[in-house]
Amino acid sequence: MIEYETAFNKLNNKAGRNMAHPVHCYRSRLRLILTCSILAISAGGLAIAADLSTLTRLAANSTIQQASAQEKIDQLDEAAQDAYADYRAKLIELESLRTYTRQLQALLDTQQALLDNLDAQIQKTGSMDRELIPLMERMYDALGTLIEQDMPFLATEREDRRERLRGILDNPELSLATKYRSLYEAYQIELDYGRTLETYSDTLEVDGKSLMVTILRVGRVALYAMSADRNIIYEWNNESREWQPTDGLRHGIEKAVRMAKKQVAPDLLVLSVPAPEDAP
Known about the structure:
Elements: H1 2-17, H2 22-149, H3 155-169, H4 176-193, E1 197-206, E2 209-218, E3 222-227, E4 233-237, E5 242-245, H5 250-260
Antiparallel strand pairs: 1-2, 2-3, 3-4, 4-5
Helix pairs in contact: 1-2, 2-3, 2-4, 3-4
């Protein structure tokens, strides 16, 4: 600005010196006007340049602010998506818990029904005990009668089983269910004797002498004893309750013994058996 003022003053001084000459005065005025115009244009250009710089700076700041705002928007959008995904997961978990609760409730209802049934059964236990205990005693006595009146096979084993059963029935610490199960198992063993073929070694007292024999049991139909040398064969007579010698059965008994020991395949046996009691 100082340079502009200095140039202007110089022009004025020079114009004053040339005021005497009209042409020179006119030219000086024209130069002055041109100089002023140039100065005005230069000042306007500087102002426009300053405005452009300001606008550029403002535009840059606006761009930075927009980028920061967009970043915040992206962060908020990502947070919203995470929150929505977590919400969906919570809904699925809630539905799973509801299903599990319904299943537990159904289970509790079933267990409550079982408890009610057990309570009803417990109330009937007293009357059942009064009925079941005498029944088991009658079954025990019937088992003893069966062993005594049956053929004398496995006599020691069967009697020992019966004695053990007596101890079980007399034990107050055992439940009625345990006692009844033991009694049932004893009956089941006796039942199996009637449909099996069995052989074992034993000692017989015959005519006051002890004789080592091989016992052959054919169900509960017949009972035989064969001496060690296979020369003497005895047949049990359940009516007279004694062993009686018999002839002509050696081949059949030897075959039956091998079948009982599973040494040969099952086959038809020819043996003498007592006739039924109601036979003519």
